[in-house]
Each structure stands twice: as structure tokens, then as C-alpha cells.
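Late entry, evening session. Most of the bench is empty. Finally got around to the prediction I had been postponing all week. Sequence below, unchanged from the version circulated by S.P.
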Amino acid sequence: WKLVDSVFDPLHARFNFTLEGCADDEGLNSHGDLPHCSPSDSILDRDLTGERVFINPPWELAEQIAQHFENCRRTSPTSTMAVFVLPKWAKFIQVTKHWKLYQEFPARTQLFTRQSPENPAQQEVVAPAPWPVQLWLVDADCAFNDSPEPTACLLYTSPSPRDLSTSRMPS
């Protein structure tokens, strides 16, 4: 699934992503002309050192992708960063414990599109997720996930979920 442009575009403007971490092989669910990883060019096989990565992972692979990202970030923590899109599920508490919660969207916020089965080049709106969805920033200020000490990562200043959740989807 693709994060709607009305949420992605301000993130990209702020963080200047160099790579989209999880897209389909054709890049039809990627944003703009960013280079992207896909099932045939897996993020898990790529050195992410020095990259600024937008990662909306398949949620069943999120923990594995997060660990791979953290391993790459160790090489160059000041130049390697990511924004992860994750559901607010208990299983991700350990993964995100040292990351910065950038933004949280309430349950049932319209956040995603997918390829149309009739025309894969077109995106169609999908039903809103029944749970909250969170955007996590992982940058040089974040401790590594195996660090024993807790960090105080506060919610970043960003547009309110209400501002973004009320924005209209393109027709």
C-alpha cells in the first residue's frame, strides 16, 4: 500500500528522502521518482548506510526491516535516517522504544491507496485502518534498539493529525 501524497509530500520536503524502502517491483506504489527497493531488490539486501529512507513496510516484515536498518545505521549514525510507517500495535513497542514518534494518526484515518486491480497504473483508496498509524523518525538523536538506557524521544513538531486527516484525497 502507498501512503497518500498529502502525508508523504510534507515528509519528503522536510527529510529529503533518497530511497523508498518498500515498493512493488514496478514502483507503481512508490512516490515520484525516488529510487526504491522491492521484492526483487530487497531492502534487506541493501546497504542503507548514508541513506535517508522512507519505509512503509509490509507489517509482517517490519521488525526484520527495522533490525536491518539499525545495523546499517551503526556504520554512520549521523548520515543515516529513516521514517517508518507502522500500526500502533503492541508487537512494535520494542522495535520503536528508542525512536521518535513523529506523528500519530487516529484509527480510521484515510492514509493509504493501492494499485487498482483493473488498471495497475492507477491508485485506488483503500478502507481506513481500524487502528492508529504512527510515523517514527529514526535519526542520529535516537539510541540503538539494543541500548539498555531509555531515551526521551518526544513527539516532533509537525502538522496535527486533524490537519492531515481532513485533507481531501485527489479524485
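Two things to note before I forget:
The chain is about 20% helix and 20% strand.
Confidence is low (pLDDT under 50) at residues 150-171.
Will write this up properly tomorrow.
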